[in-house]
Amino acid sequence: MAATLKLEIVTPEAKTYSEDVDMVTLPGVEGEMGIYPQHVPLMTQIVPGEISVRKGGQDFFLAVGEGFVEITGDRVAVLTDMAIKAENIDELKAEEAKKRAEARLAEKISDEESALVSASLVNSLAQLKVKRRGRH
Amino acid sequence: MPSTRDIRRRIKSVKNTAQITKAMQMVAASKMRKAQQAALNGRPYATLMNEVLAEVSFNSGDFSHPLMEKREGGKRAVIVVSTDKGLCGGLNGNLMREAAKCDRDTTIYITAGRKASQFIARTKRQLAAEFTYKDAPLFSEARAISKFAQELFLKGEVSRVDILYTNFISTLNQKPEMRQLLPVGEIKGVTAGIQSQAKEEKLLKGSTEFVFEPGAEQVMGALLPHSLNFQVYQILLEAKASEHSSRMVAMKNATDNAKQLIKDLTLEYNKLRQANITKELLEITSAAMAMS
Prior knowledge:
The complex is a heterodimer. By secondary structure, chain A is of the alpha+beta class. Chain A has two helices and ten strands. Chain A has two domains: about 5-85, F0F1 ATP synthase delta/epsilon subunit, N-terminal (ATP Synthase, domain 1); about 90-130. In chain A, the strands form two sheets. A five-stranded mixed beta sheet of chain A has the order 2-1-9-8-5, with no helix packed on it. Chain A has a five-stranded antiparallel beta sheet with strand order 4-3-6-7-10, with helices on one face. In chain A, a hairpin with a 2-residue loop joins strand 8 (about 65-70) and strand 9. In chain A, helix 1 (about 90-105) runs antiparallel to helix 2 (about 110-130). At the A-B interface, strand 5 and strand 8 of A face helix 1, strand 6 and helix 6 of B.
């Protein structure tokens, strides 16, 4: 029996994370869900937010964008367009990106572009949320 | 017999050519590094996406999606991904040879890159649409191509969509490859030989039924188009990496050839110069002898 899960987080740019972990919490479309080993095979979508990973009694956090998750008994595969570890998030940059996106949204732009900009906006919001947790 | 001046002129022009090809080689080399990196970085995502898709479509039971519908007969669309510029060795030539193999009457072409559109126009084949992509392909460019292909398929104008591109294997080796895009059925790795036999066997054995959240329809409805878009994107990256690698190698060969030519010409030039000097000396001495 597998006591750990193999968590793989992959973005189009790189493989961000690939380790054996004890538990994963994902921002699913229908709310947060915690995944333990031996989970029933599940296929779902995730929304921009944070993934928290428990490994050896410690918690790690990552900011993720929109994507898909495939869960089998011993593996969690996350396909997403963004994934950044909490310690690598540049708060100032994310804040700036957020402001830029908000300013852009306030202008008159085409539907396609506004979809693009709001996608990047929620991504920066997710980064900020992960970075600022525990400080409030 | 060319004069020394002719040879000197020739050497100069070859030197100029060598300089140009050398510069192009340098540019291609730096672009190649970036493009190769991009293509290689995208591979894990592509592989994982394919694995997920293969497992899910295998285990989703009787669920089917319009994009998975198999139809007999009808037309076939081929997306040809070529380069915009020439001077990249046999890359486009090989690609077009593959493209020409498709049946003229039942195939409509969608092109990405100028060379492909020129070829289709020249051979008077049916062209459905032309797309362009930048040196660093954008996801939105891939999405445009893939969306167009999906619409053709969903409207029933074609019953099958293939994509023809140059797969990047290594700097020295790129191969044209045809891959089926629609209907989504057999899913193969976007990269060469990654999806192995063992994996397929594993798939057949593990008959775990997946739970979908919120529902199979919604998840697959989002996953399938996204995975197609991404496949096209990865293919654009691979094609770019192939293009720059091929160009770099072609330009390196051209530079080497030019250098060799300069060497040969210089040798010939020196021989001729020597011969002329000897001839002149001979004339002087014989004239001096005649005087005395």
